């Protein structure tokens, strides 16, 4: 029976192993490309692949589990094993990863008093229910069961968040009970002792997460670890992620990356490149950070990684490959004939042919929930996307001003179908000193000036729940306390959930009210949120996937569906200027793209080009 041991080094079947790993998140790559990305990892000289498993990706609703298609991590593991790669698995419950709420399922927020990432019994009960489904799927792939999984991580960067060692022990004990036998690891930033040691667990190897200064970091780590244990950088940040509103794409300094990576390989330490291949935040699954303001992450998770978002080999890739070859020998770096044939193609300009106004189709795609007070997105049973709150003023009452007590993240206000204002983050709820009402710290007066008896609509977008730090428990979305209209709380609302999931988009396509671009009605309320349909034919090369890139110049903000698959958000503020469309999403013959746009900034067309574009 094969086994892995941690002594002065890592040992597999008694033979020493230097772990040279790269991170690939199966959930950020279409399944048809898993083999391609893993082949390119092995071709660079890595012997191990690391991936997270996001809880919210696999249990989007309590007790509802998804394991097929892009959710089938077992298939991903099997491909890695076929290629002879070892695996490091980081199986939640929290992953960070610039992923929506760090992988935590949003339905936790619907429970009053929920406490996260600690020994809070209701939270532990939910984890137990989830692990009872998840962990048995991993057990057969462990190295001592004939598979290639060599390490399992307990939690993730816990020292940044808390110090409840009993919580970490609960996770470890639960996984052992369910059949995990390979060694455990933890990972934390090694800069401060109180952080690095708070995340440690007896019996689990501590590892560090850092992007530069590897020699100093390892020396510092060694002081805070049990003696004679191997050193590992679990997240070597050879790049970084991007946020909407950045002036340009984030990029690392390759000469520094080169020095650090060479130091680690030369000295026999262990390293996992985060990310080797970043991929894409499909759908609404990007996370956000909050340091004084909300900064949602872009759809692209390119990460300036050795393998680009679309799977191309970069200068960084060849730099790292040469280091491995020089330090480990030619045999460590195989020349692989990549089995998946992929090309980048430009298909040119495509004009939209039909439009569906959101308000005209609201009740076609969403049944309203009636509530005295506004309900948060989570209380309404929704995780991501948009949510609309509708109310009517009395016939003899005009709305003059309003105050949101709690609203996140971005809201468009309408009176009788006319847009009144758009507000984002602190613009929605910010302190107004010297103005009524002084008792509401976050109150801000917004002018409405509607007609008496007006219908008021508030379309709220979840821009991505914060994935790191101590705001994790403050991530309710939508409007989740009363709205004050004309100085007092306003009651009686209809709430329309708009996850824009497959079922909802199918209803819109089949039963929605669509107008053509030539229809005069298409010009009514041109600023209002609307869906735009593009129908087009493609002639694709047999046996070759044709990647392309949607240039959204001239469009304001929204999301894009390609043949029913949500490829992610766009926003004119950049720095991302195109959306990546993986070839497997396209079909030979008829294709459909639907754009949902919320700002009233639209072009007559889009362009499908042959490369990614960023602000410079």
From TrEMBL:
Record key words, sorted: Glycosidase, Hydrolase
Active-site residue numbers: 157 (proton donor), 235 (nucleophile)
Pfam families: BetaGal_ABD_1 (PF21317), BetaGal_gal-bd (PF21467), Glyco_hydro_35 (PF01301)
InterPro entries from the UniProt entry: B-gal_1-like (IPR026283), BetaGal1-like_ABD1 (IPR048912), BetaGal_gal-bd (IPR048913), Galactose-bd-like_sf (IPR008979), GH (IPR017853), Gly_Hdrlase_35_cat (IPR031330), Glycoside_Hdrlase_35 (IPR001944)
Record-level Gene Ontology MF annotations: beta-galactosidase activity
Domain Beta-galactosidase 1-like first all-beta: 374-498
Glycoside hydrolase 35 catalytic domain span: 10-326
Gene3D superfamilies cross-referenced by the UniProt entry: Galactose-binding domain-like, Glycosidases
Span of domain Beta-galactosidase galactose-binding: 529-591
GO biological process, one term: carbohydrate metabolic process
PANTHER family, A to Z: BETA-GALACTOSIDASE RELATED
Family: Belongs to the glycosyl hydrolase 35 family.
Protein name according to UniProt: Beta-galactosidase
Naturally occurring in which organism (per UniProt): Treponema bryantii
């Amino acid at each position: 029976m094969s086994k892995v041991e941690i002594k002065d080094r890592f040992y597999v079947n008694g033979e020493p192993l230097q772990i040279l790993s790269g991170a690939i998140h199966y959930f950020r790559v279409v399944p048809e490309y898993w083999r391609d990305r893993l082949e390119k990892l092995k071709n660079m000289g890595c012997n191990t692949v690391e991936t997270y498993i996001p809880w919210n990706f696999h249990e989007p609703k309590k007790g509802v589990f998804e394991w097929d298609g892009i959710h089938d991590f077992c298939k991903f593991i099997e491909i890695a094993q076929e290629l002879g790669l070892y695996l490091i698995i980081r199986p939640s419950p929290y992953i960070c990863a610039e992923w929506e709420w760090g992988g935590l399922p949003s339905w936790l927020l619907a429970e009053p008093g929920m406490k996260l990432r600690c020994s809070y019994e209701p939270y532990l009960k939910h984890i137990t229910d989830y692990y009872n489904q998840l962990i048995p799927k991993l057990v057969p792939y462990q190295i001592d069961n004939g598979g290639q999984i060599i390490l399992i991580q307990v939690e993730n960067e816990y020292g940044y968040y808390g110090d409840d060692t009993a919580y970490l022990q609960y996770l470890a004990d639960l996984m052992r009970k369910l059949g995990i036998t390979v060694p455990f690891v933890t990972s934390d930033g090694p800069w401060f002792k109180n952080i690095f040691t708070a995340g440690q667990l007896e019996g689990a190897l501590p590892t560090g997460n850092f992007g530069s200064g590897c020699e100093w970091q390892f020396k510092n780590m060694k002081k805070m670890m049990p003696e004679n244990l191997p050193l590992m950088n679990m997240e070597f940040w050879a790049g970084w992620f991007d946020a909407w509103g950045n002036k340009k794409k984030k990029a690392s300094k390759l000469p520094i990356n080169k020095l650090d990576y060479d130091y680690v390989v030369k000295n026999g330490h262990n390293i996992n490149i985060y990310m080797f291949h970043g991929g894409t935040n499909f759908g609404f699954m990007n996370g956000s950070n909050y340091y004084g303001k909300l900064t949602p992450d872009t759809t692209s998770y390119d990460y300036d990684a050795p393998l680009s978002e679309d799977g191309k080999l970069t200068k960084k890739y060849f730099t790292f490959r040469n280091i491995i070859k020089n330090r480990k020998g030619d045999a460590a770096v195989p020349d692989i004939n990549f089995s998946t044939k992929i090309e980048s193609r430009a298909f040119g300009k495509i004009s939209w042919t039909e439009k569906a106004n959101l308000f005209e189709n609201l009740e076609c795609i969403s049944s309203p929930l009636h509530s005295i007070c506004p309900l948060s997105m989570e209380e309404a049973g929704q995780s991501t996307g948009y949510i609309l709150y509708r109310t009517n003023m009395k016939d003899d009452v005009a709305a003059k001003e309003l105050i949101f007590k709690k609203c996140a993240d971005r809201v468009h206000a309408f009176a009788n179908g006319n847009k009144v204002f758009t507000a984002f983050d602190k613009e929605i709820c910010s302190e107004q000193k010297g103005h009524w009402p002084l008792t509401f710290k976050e109150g801000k007066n917004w002018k409405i000036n509607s007609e008496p008896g007006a219908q008021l609509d508030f379309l709220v977008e979840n821009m991505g729940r914060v994935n790191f730090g101590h705001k994790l428990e403050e991530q309710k979305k939508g409007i989740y306390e009363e709205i004050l209209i004309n100085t007092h709380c306003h009651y009686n609302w209809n709430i329309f959930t708009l996850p824009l999931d497959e079922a909802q988009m199918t209803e819109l396509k089949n039963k929605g009210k669509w107008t053509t671009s030539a229809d005069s009605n298409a010009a009514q309320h041109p600023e209002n949120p609307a869906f735009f349909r593009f129908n087009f034919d493609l002639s694709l090369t047999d046996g070759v996937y044709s990647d392309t890139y949607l240039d959204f110049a001239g469009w304001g903000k929204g999301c894009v569906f390609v043949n029913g698959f949500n490829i992610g958000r766009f926003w004119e503020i950049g720095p991302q200027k195109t959306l990546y469309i993986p070839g497997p999403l396209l079909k030979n013959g008829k294709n459909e793209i639907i754009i949902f746009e919320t700002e009233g900034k639209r072009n007559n067309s889009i362009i499908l080009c042959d490369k990614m574009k960023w602000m410079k």
